[in-house]
Design a protein that fits this description.
The complex is a heterodimer of chains A (116) and B (113). Chain A is 0% helix and 53% strand. With 116 residues, chain A is an all-beta fold. In chain A, strands 2, 4, 5, 6, 9, 10 and 11 form a 7-stranded mixed beta sheet that branches. Chain A is globular, with a radius of gyration of 13 Å. Chain B has strands at residues 4-7, 10-14, 19-25, 33-38, 45-50, 56-59, 62-67, 72-77, 86-93, 101-103, 107-112. The chains are: A mainly beta (116), B mainly beta (113).
Chain lengths: 116, 113
């Protein structure tokens, strides 16, 4: 149980393109989803927290107009990197949690984004 | 400011040995302490977690020891296997803060045959 699917697993695109990443909870309803960014050999950095039907809450320093998050249903959240540039290249990972905030987060397998 | 400090940065252990990773935290309000295992190119997978009302939790070869007064917790991997070679992250969260996880810097564990 508690499977989180992330798609695509890898994307390579040209600078200026917008890229959408999907995060789905397959066997549970995710009240809250989180989006992280991870650089090579570093820890996970929380970008934003999204609750179903509400606007996402972004961490300090994360541009909300650059990283658009939509959590339209209890099983799907999307992250759109708008007008991506090479510095946006990174490993993006989502997680999902069922129920209250004392429940564990379950992570997807990440999306490797490379901007040329 | 890193709220959870993790050590060591890397660890090499022989097959059958014990891997020990330590974490320390500052915020005494943290009430959930999970450990995650991450393989290259994959997302973190929840390994084991503990709450502050318990001093130790064991699941198979993995044990968390928790010292509330010292604000420290550790992961012990008993009988380490080559398949345990991965990066391990400790984390802490606060129920009142949407359960947002504060991660440690990670420990790369290599188990030699």
């Amino acid at each position: 149980g508690a499977v989180v699917s992330q798609h695509p697993s890898r994307v390579i695109c040209k600078s200026g393109t917008s890229v959408k990443i999907e995060c789905r909870s397959l066997d549970f309803q995710a009240t809250t989803m989180f989006w992280y960014r991870q650089f090579p050999k570093q820890s996970l950095m929380l970008m934003a927290t999204s609750n179903e039907g509400s606007k996402a809450t972004y961490e300090q320093g994360v541009e909300k107009d650059k990283f658009l998050i939509n959590h339209a249903s209890l099983t799907l959240s999307t992250l759109t990197v708008t007008s991506a540039h090479p510095e946006d290249s990174s490993f993006y990972i989502c997680s999902a949690r069922q129920g209250y905030s004392n429940q564990p987060q379950h992570f997807g397998d990440g999306t490797r984004l490379s901007i040329l | 400011q890193q709220q959870v400090k993790q050590s060591p940065q890397s660890l090499i252990v022989q097959k059958g040995g014990i891997s020990i990773i330590n974490c320390a935290y500052e915020n005494t309000a943290f009430d959930y302490f999970p450990w995650y295992q991450q393989f290259p190119g994959k997302g973190p997978a929840l390994l084991i977690a503990i709450r502050p009302d318990v001093s130790e939790k064991k699941e198979g070869r993995f044990t968390i020891s928790f010292n509330k007064s010292a604000k420290q917790f550790s992961l012990h991997i008993m009988d380490s296997q080559p398949g345990d070679s991965a990066t391990y992250f400790c984390a802490a969260s606060l129920t009142d803060s949407w359960g947002k996880l504060q991660f440690g810097a990670g420990t790369q564990v290599v188990v030699t045959p």
